[in-house]
């Protein structure tokens, strides 16, 4: 059985998927399987993926009969992983990694059992693969913090969740709630992983994160983001922030063996009580009643920044 499972969820990814797959197959660590889970793509994704699967036995292609949304598709890669895999990494179809990425991250996890997530440094690129300034932020070090403090720091960090594409210790990942049906649930998953173990940055490995217009973080409409995350939820009101806070409370109560529930809930309370967060909760409630009023409030709030 392969030591590492690489799970690549994709929907209509023919523009970049070849480079993503090639960067995986060119790793200098080769004890892995690549599982491509296709959300019923309507472009050339299926043909490209099947070609790679036919040529390399490490590649498995699974096509869903319909588009399930991003969260179920991410989770399906985990569910299809070989049961004896030690580690798992999710791979976006539009990103790619340096040839030593798996070697460096596996070495880190093998040598430090207290680490649950290892990841390389992030280098952003444009649609043509040219290096650009980083779009977003990497999470600061969690070293020296208590378990609850690690949890709180990840919750409060408002970066770009580059770390979601790191290499996870599978035994810890199996204890998590995985991805949920609201946009931004990757933040909760990263926080839950921080409860179960530390993070480690592998500076010699590089994660090439591609910036382009069709990325999910560039979707402004909250209902469209909900539909991206959960295909059947596009016509419903979006409660991203309410979904996150309720998910975090569930996580805080799931792991009393590693950190007292009261300390975990205190970290969540500090996060939720911030004025910006409180305004987000209120705005989502307004949007459930009147989306047009919600859009008007957002325009008024952002007008000073644009000026």
Description of the structure:
This protein is α/β, with parallel strands linked by helices. 43% of the residues lie in helices and 17% in strands. It has helices at 17-25, 45-55, 70-79, 101-111, 147-156, 170-173, 185-196, 222-229, 240-254, 261-272, 275-289, 291-306; strands spanning 4-10, 32-38, 59-63, 87-90, 96-97, 115-125, 167-169, 198-210. Strands 3-2-1-4-7-6-8-5 form an 8-stranded mixed beta sheet, sandwiched between helices. Helix 2 links the parallel strand 2 (32-38) and strand 3 (59-63). Helix 5 (147-156) runs antiparallel to helix 7 and helix 5 packs parallel to helix 10.
Distance N terminus to C terminus? 57 Å
Profile the largest sheet.
8 strands, mixed
Beta-strand share of residues:
15-25%
Give the strand tally.
Answer: 8
**Radius of gyration over alpha carbons?**
19 Å
Low-confidence segments: none
Work out the helix count. 12
Q: What kind of oligomer do you see? A: single chain
Helix-strand category: alpha/beta
- The pLDDT mean sits at 91
SSE order: EHEHEHEEHEHEHHEHHHHH
Provide the helix percentage. 40-55%
Strand order of the largest sheet: 3-2-1-4-7-6-8-5
Shape: globular
Task: Lay out the secondary structure.
Layout: E1 4-10, H1 17-25, E2 32-38, H2 45-55, E3 59-63, H3 70-79, E4 87-90, E5 96-97, H4 101-111, E6 115-125, H5 147-156, E7 167-169, H6 170-173, H7 185-196, E8 198-210, H8 222-229, H9 240-254, H10 261-272, H11 275-289, H12 291-306
Parallel strand pairs: 1-2, 1-4, 2-3, 6-8
Antiparallel strand pairs: 4-7, 5-8, 6-7
Helix pairs in contact: 5-7, 5-10, 7-9, 9-10, 11-12
């Amino acid at each position: 059985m392969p030591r590492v499972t690489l799970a690549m969820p994709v929907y209509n990814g023919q523009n970049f998927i070849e480079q993503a797959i090639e960067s995986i197959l060119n790793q200098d660590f080769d004890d892995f399987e690549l599982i491509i889970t296709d959300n019923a793509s309507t472009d050339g994704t299926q043909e490209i993926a099947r070609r790679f699967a036919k040529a390399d036995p490490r590649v498995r292609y699974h096509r869903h009969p319909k588009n399930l949304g991003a969260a179920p598709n991410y989770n399906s890669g985990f569910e299809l992983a070989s049961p004896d895999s030690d580690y798992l990494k999710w791979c976006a179809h539009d990103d790619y990694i340096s040839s030593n990425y798996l070697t460096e991250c596996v070495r880190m996890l093998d040598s430090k059992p207290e680490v649950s997530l290892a990841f390389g440094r992030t280098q952003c690129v444009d649609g043509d693969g040219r290096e650009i300034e980083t779009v977003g932020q990497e999470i600061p070090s969690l070293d020296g913090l208590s378990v609850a403090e690690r949890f709180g720091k990840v919750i409060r960090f408002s970066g770009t969740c580059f770390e979601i594409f790191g290499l996870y210790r599978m035994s810890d990942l199996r204890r998590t709630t995985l991805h949920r049906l609201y946009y931004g649930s990757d933040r909760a998953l990263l926080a839950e992983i921080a409860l179960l173990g530390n993070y480690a940055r592998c500076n010699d490995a590089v994660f090439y994160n591609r910036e382009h217009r069709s990325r999910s973080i560039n979707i402004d409409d909250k209902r469209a983001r909900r539909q991206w995350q959960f295909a059947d939820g596009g016509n419903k009101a979006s409660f991203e922030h309410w979904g996150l806070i309720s998910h975090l409370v569930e996580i805080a109560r799931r792991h009393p063996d590693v950190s007292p529930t009261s300390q975990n809930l205190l970290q969540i309370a500090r996060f939720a009580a911030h004025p910006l967060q409180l305004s987000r909760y209120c705005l989502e409630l307004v949007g459930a009643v009147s989306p047009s009023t919600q859009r008007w409030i957002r325009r008024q709030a952002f007008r000073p920044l644009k000026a």
